[in-house]
């Protein structure tokens, strides 16, 4: 019988990524609810030293697959190894993070295991001994509560920045076990040939703690500096609405909304964004929403915790000055 | 270079989504159906590659008869022929089952590349592309913003932005690429294109035509079961920040963000 909760760790260049702590903490909660063990699967090259620390977040065991072909991440290599480990160990639940890598991996892994897969979930629960997941659909215009049938492991990925990270307990350490697996070079059809760092090293919108976002009301690309000043000051990333991106003012990677990024920062400041339904869909899980817009009837105000009716070109620079008092 | 583009039809992104009376599906009465926006990038990229390397572009859709409209749109943009997999037994199928039907429909076609959108903007699952690739036994390259096919047509180099970096990945062909915004600007269908599209071949296939048993499809065969759909959680009523001048409003907002919301 399938037994145990597994989470797939995400690391880059040997460094454990934050999403890993989120899903390990959540995995612990699910394992406790079931009275089962939590195993973390860690893949990479020379990464064993980072494994034991995951015990502080609740891992009972860390299964380490160490191989030079597992760094950097490729779909082929990861799916081959994890699929083999899952088939050999038969876990009941398999949780990943819905980062870019996690979305790619989970989709192919689910197909390879021929199981159902709940992507980008915001809530997990155990009901009658089974995983039940809640996930936004239509980019958050509705929520679906889903479960699994004739489908083991019960597989799901957690939206970044939603699951809370447990306070690490330094008295705890996980049992670290070398995974046994085979990896056939003939199966590896893709290869990472280069990595380009993003300019400015800014935090990706999906991982940002705060976002200052600008829309059509910004009037042109040259005006985003006022958002950047505020963003730099409070440690935020700068986002944009679809109309600003379609106008060519901002890169596509900055777009928040149903056809862009779906974000859940602690603070979202929407400047000159009217709040088209496809934009609201992409940011409505933000914890605190501020809207600054001169049109008091703009739909964005219906989603905002704090609305400022006024010209953003006056309000935003004034806000930048005012927040300095609290930093 | 022969290319397949898989299309989905989804509610327009401006649509309001209302939950149906069964509590597990959406009301479709007022929905305007469009080609999934991410799939448009796939059609465009396929057409550009065809213009450069020659070959044929086939668009494949799955769903009820209305999906024909989206296939015709792609034909009007310049695709050569279409295949619609349509069968009542498919209604309510999950991504796994849908991908199985699509994979069956394309597996005997001659292709070097398959494009799908990185996800449908309805279920937001992003599973069908990867599942088709798995079933066909070809590599997948997901969330791609740049595609370069080698001169000899044997390999492809793509760019995938991840958090803070962009990976440049090479793969053998055939491969399946899931595309996202930033790849290109999809063209509009021209009037002559629309006229021509009416005469382009569009084949319809049922599960039986594909040699598939309908028992493996539909609501009853779902591995990911929908228990219920709910509207998004209501947000608490917000407040309008008061003040006579922009400066006063900004001061009050900064204070609220610090003292009440505790985010600054």
Automatic annotation (TrEMBL), chain A:
Residues 5-195 form the Electron transfer flavoprotein alpha/beta-subunit N-terminal domain. Coiled coil: none annotated. Keywords: Electron transport, FAD, Flavoprotein, Transport. FAD binds at residues 216, 241-242, 255-259, 272-279, 293. It holds the Pfam family ETF_alpha. Binds 1 FAD per dimer. Its cofactor is FAD. One of its GO terms (biological process) is fatty acid beta-oxidation using acyl-CoA dehydrogenase. CDD domains: ETF_alpha (cd01715). Gene3D superfamilies: HUPs, TPP-binding domain. SMART domains: ETF. GO terms for molecular function: electron transfer activity; flavin adenine dinucleotide binding. Belongs to the ETF alpha-subunit/FixB family. This is Electron transfer flavoprotein subunit alpha/FixB family protein.
TrEMBL record, chain B:
Residues 23-214 form the Electron transfer flavoprotein alpha/beta-subunit N-terminal domain. Pfam families: ETF. Keywords: Electron transport, Transport. Its cofactor is AMP. GO terms for molecular function: electron transfer activity. One of its GO terms (biological process) is carboxylic acid catabolic process. The keyword Transport applies. The keyword Electron transport applies. It comes from the Bacteria. InterPro entries: ETF_a/b_N, ETF_b, ETF_beta_N, Rossmann-like_a/b/a_fold. Heterodimer of an alpha and a beta subunit. Belongs to the ETF beta-subunit/FixA family. The electron transfer flavoprotein serves as a specific electron acceptor for other dehydrogenases. It transfers the electrons to the main respiratory chain via ETF-ubiquinone oxidoreductase (ETF dehydrogenase). This is Electron transfer flavoprotein subunit beta.
């Amino acid at each position: 019988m399938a037994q145990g909760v597994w989470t797939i760790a995400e690391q880059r260049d040997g460094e454990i990524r934050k999403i890993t702590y989120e899903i390990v903490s959540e995995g612990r909660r699910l394992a406790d609810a079931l009275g089962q063990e939590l195993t973390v699967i860690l893949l990479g090259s020379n990464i064993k030293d980072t494994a034991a620390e995951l015990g502080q977040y609740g891992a009972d065991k860390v299964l380490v697959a160490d191989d030079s072909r597992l760094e950097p991440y490729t779909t082929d290599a990861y799916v081959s190894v994890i699929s083999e480990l899952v088939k050999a160990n038969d876990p009941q639940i398999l949780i990943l993070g819905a980062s870019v890598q996690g979305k790619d991996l989970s989709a192919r892994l689910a197909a390879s295991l021929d199981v159902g897969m709940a992507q980008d979930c915001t809530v997990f629960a155990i009901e009658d001994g089974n995983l039940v997941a809640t996930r936004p659909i239509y980019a958050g215009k509705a929520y679906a509560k889903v479960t699994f049938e004739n489908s083991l492991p019960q597989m799901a990925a957690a939206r970044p920045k939603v699951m809370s990270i447990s306070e690490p307990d330094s008295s705890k350490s996980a049992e670290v076990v070398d995974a046994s697996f085979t990896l056939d070079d003939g199966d590896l059809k893709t290869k990472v040939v280069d990595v380009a760092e993003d300019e400015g090293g800014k935090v990706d919108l999906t991982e940002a703690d705060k976002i200052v976002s600008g829309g059509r009301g910004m009037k042109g690309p040259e005006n985003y500096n006022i958002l950047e000043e505020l963003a730099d000051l409070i440690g935020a990333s700068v986002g944009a609405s679809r109309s600003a991106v379609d106008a060519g003012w901002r890169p596509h990677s900055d777009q928040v909304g149903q056809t862009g990024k779906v974000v859940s920062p602690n603070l979202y400041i929407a400047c000159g964004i009217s709040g088209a339904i496809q934009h609201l869909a992409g940011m409505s899980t933000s914890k605190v929403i501020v809207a600054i817009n001169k049109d008091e009837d703009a739909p964005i105000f219906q989603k905002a915790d704090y609305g400022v009716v006024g010209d953003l070109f006056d309000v935003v620079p004034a806000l930048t000055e005012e927040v300095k008092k609290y930093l | 270079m022969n290319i397949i583009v898989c299309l989905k039809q989804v509610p327009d992104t401006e649509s309001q989504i209302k939950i149906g009376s069964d509590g597990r599906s959406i009301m479709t009465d007022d929905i305007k159906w469009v080609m999934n926006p991410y799939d448009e990038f796939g059609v465009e990229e396929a057409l550009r590659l065809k213009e450069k390397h020659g070959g044929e572009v086939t668009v494949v859709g799955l769903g009820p008869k209305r999906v024909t409209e989206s296939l015709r749109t792609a034909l009007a943009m310049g695709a050569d022929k279409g295949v619609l997999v349509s069968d009542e037994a498919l209604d309510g199928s999950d991504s796994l089952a849908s991908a199985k039907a699509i994979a069956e429909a394309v597996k005997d076609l001659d292709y070097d590349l398959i494009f799908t959108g990185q996800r449908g903007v309805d279920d937001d699952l992003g599973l069908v592309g990867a599942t088709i690739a798995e079933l066909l036994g070809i590599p997948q390259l997901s969330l791609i913003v740049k595609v370069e096919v080698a001169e000899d047509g044997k390999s492809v180099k793509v760019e995938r932005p991840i958090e803070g970096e962009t990976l440049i990945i090479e793969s053998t062909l055939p491969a399946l690429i899931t595309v996202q915004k930033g790849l290109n600007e999809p063209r509009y269908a021209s009037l002559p294109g629309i006229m021509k599209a009416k005469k382009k071949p569009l084949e319809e296939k049922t599960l039986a035509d594909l040699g598939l048993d309908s028992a493996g499809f539909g609501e009853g065969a779902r591995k990911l079961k929908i228990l219920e759909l709910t509207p998004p959680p209501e947000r608490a009523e917000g407040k309008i920040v008061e003040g006579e001048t922009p400066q006063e409003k900004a001061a009050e907002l900064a204070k609220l963000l610090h003292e009440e919301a505790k985010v600054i």
